[in-house]
Every structure is written in C-alpha cells, then in structure tokens.
Amino acid sequence: MIDDSEVPADSREPTATMQRPEAQEIVTLLYRGMLGREPDPDGFRKNVDALVAGHPVASLVRSFVESPELAGKQRLLRPNLTGFPAFPDRDVFVEPAVVDALFTKTATYWRNTASKPEEIYWSVLTEARWNRALTAADRRDFVRTGAAYADRVLGEFVRRTGRPAAGLRCLDFGCGVGRLAINFAMRGAEVRAVDFSSAHVAELRANADLHGCADKISTWLLQMPADLDTVPTADLVYSLVALQHNTPTVIAYVMESLLRHLEPGGLAFLHVTLAKAGYTGFTVDGYLRDPVAGTTMEVHFLPRTNIEQVAQRAGCEVVASNCVGGNYYAYSEELIFRRRDGA
After folding, report:
1. What is the mean pLDDT of residues 284-294?
2. Nearest-angstrom CA–CA distance, 317 and 10
3. Are 177 and 142 in contact (CB under 8 A)?
4. Local confidence band at 8 (pLDDT 50, 70, 90 cut-offs)
5. For 326, phi and psi rounded to 5 degrees?
6. How far is CA 226 from each of CA 106, 118, 230, rounded to the nearest angstrom?
7. 330-339 and 316-326 as β-strands: parallel, antiparallel, unpaired?
8. pLDDT for 316-328, tens place per residue?
9. Alpha carbon distances (Å) from 335 to 292, 311, 338
10. What is the mean pLDDT of residues 158-184?
11. pLDDT value for 260
12. Torsions phi, psi of 2, nearest 5?
C-alpha cells in the first residue's frame, strides 16, 4: 500500500522504529477495518517492514484511505450485496471437463504457495499469528479455534434431528489441516476429511496423531471435483470458508455433490459467499483465458438464486440460513440443507 511518491515531503523522513508485533497489529487492523479483508502475504510483509523501518503510520493510513481498492468497494453498500443477479446456466451447469479445467486453474495456489510450511496454517485461518511455521503447542492452539464451530453445528444437528452426536458420520469438505475435523472427532463423530491439497491432508494426519483421534478420521485426497463421488455418504456434511475459494461453476458443482452425499434425515451446513463488492463478472471462457487466474487466494461467490437451483437439482431444500459475514465488501451465509422426503 505504501507509495513514497504520495507521501508529503515533510513526512518522508523515517520516524522512530516500531516493534514488529505492533506493526503487524496495525497493518492487520487496516486491512480488516478499511478493506474488509485479511492481508495478502506480500502486502502484509511490505507494509510491516516499512513500519518497522520507521515509515510514518500516517502515511500508511493515507495510502489505505486513497487506495483504488477502497474506492471500488465503497461504491457498493451492504444492502446491495444480497441482490446480485443469478449467473446464467451456461456459466454454472457445465460439462465435467469444463469443471475440471476451471478447478485446475484455481488449485494452482492451493497446491503450491498455500502448501509451504509458513503459509499452510495461514491459508486456513488468515490471521497474522498463523503466518509462520508452527510448533506442536501452536498447532494445538490452532485446532482449538475450531471448537466453537463444532459445538454449535453438532448442537444444531441434535436439536433439529433428535439424533446423538456420538457415532455420527461426518463429511468435512475443505478439511485443510484438521481445525474442524479434529474437533468433531474428539466429540465422538466419525469424520471423512476431504481436501485437494496433499500438504494439507498430510498436516491433518499429523495433527490428528497429536490429538489422539487419528482412528476417528479417514482422509480423502481428491485430484478433481468428480473424485467426490468416491467418498462415502454421511449424516452431517459441513464446509466452512472453503467453497468461496473456487469459481462459481465449481462452487455449484461441489455443492450439488455434497448435498447428494446426505443420508436420509441428514443435514448439510455449507458456508457460501453470496455476493462480493467490486466483482467484475464471471464467465467460464473469460476465467480460463485469464493468465493471472489461480495464482492467488481467490474469493468468488454464488448468488442465492443459483444456490436454490443447486439444492433443487440435488433433491434438497434450505431449512435455515444465517449471515456469518456481511459488510460493504462481501456477504456470506451458512445455509442448512436437508434432503426432501423421498428424494
């Protein structure tokens, strides 16, 4: 964000140096509070280094205030974000070969940059404290951050179905390093943990051993979205902050497959971004031609109308939805699905 050409001459002289933890906190707060997102690794590192080197805080704040990214996002306020029109069928429901081509591009980041030791935990939970290689104690702390989610989802499942959590068969899509899968397993569930990154799955296995629940978790490393067909069905399907990192087409394909994995009487808890400010549009052909696509941690969305289409195709219905992220930048919900009787 910092650009010395935009800094007034009287403020270009370095100030007293700042400690790195304080600089990291300031930069993180600016990204979250002003841009509505987590820092990207390169921007985070450059801005922190600049503050540590003595660059004025006021100059950094000014660069955020005057950034084109903030200007673009301020054009869309939160009320607009729930009304995005549906994507046309030609860009949502396509041939499997096209789904594979789209996914292959998106997977470039996850199978490379996000698999590095210093990135692997940050790619799951984008907070500065996880942007490094972790010790065993750190890994326990990281897994502990998923406990509240497991408690809430299991509690909601029991309340809605009357079935106990013990012995429940779960499917965790986008399992990453096991932040959620391990918490479900430690509460008595049998977890099918699914991911497309071999590095993440390997880290999950190590973390499951660390927590003494490896016997409760089976892992499924997928090469392509269609490989989901090899995963057994489940009573409870869940996915948190994973679907949004795929294109709308792949989101729809994976959602439909996950819903078809539901056993009778089961529920799916799927976190989906429904709208994103500044989104310039999506077409299958345009994405496949874009040379930059797939090289960063992307965030896409699927409008509610398309989600309803997917649910109908899978013989399911939405029984509840809750906003889990809404500001002028993006709007997302956790939707609870159940299979219709006889579907």
Report:
1. 92
2. 61
3. yes
4. very low
5. -150, 120
6. 15, 30, 8
7. antiparallel
8. 999 999 887 655 5
9. 31, 11, 10
10. 95
11. 96
12. -70, 130
Q: How far apart are CA 279 and CA 43, in angstroms?
A: 20
Q: How far apart are CA 55 and CA 3, in angstroms?
A: 11
Tell me which H or E stretch contains 250.
helix 248-260
Give the pLDDT score at 325. 67
Share of the chain above pLDDT 70, in %: 90
**Domains of the chain, first to last:** 4-73 (no CATH), 89-339 (3.40.50.150)
Q: What is the strand order of the sheet 190-195 is part of?
A: 217-221, 190-195, 169-173, 234-239, 262-276, 330-339, 316-326
CB 257 within 8 A of CB 232: no
Both tokens of residue 189? 């569930």
DSSP secondary structure string for all residues of 133-197: ---HHHHHHHHHTTHHHHHHHHHHHHHHH---STT-EEEEET-TTSTTHHHHHHTT-EEEEEES-
Pairing of strands 169-173, 217-221: unpaired
Q: Provide the β-strand partners of residue 171.
A: 192, 237
Tokens standing for residue 141: 């702390």
d(CA 238, CA 323) in angstroms, rounded, equals 16
User: What pLDDT is stored for residue 77 in this prediction?
Assistant: 42
CA–CA separation, 203 and 221 (whole Å): 12
What letter represents residue 276's amino acid?
A: K
State the CB neighbour count (10 A cutoff) for residue 30.
Answer: 19
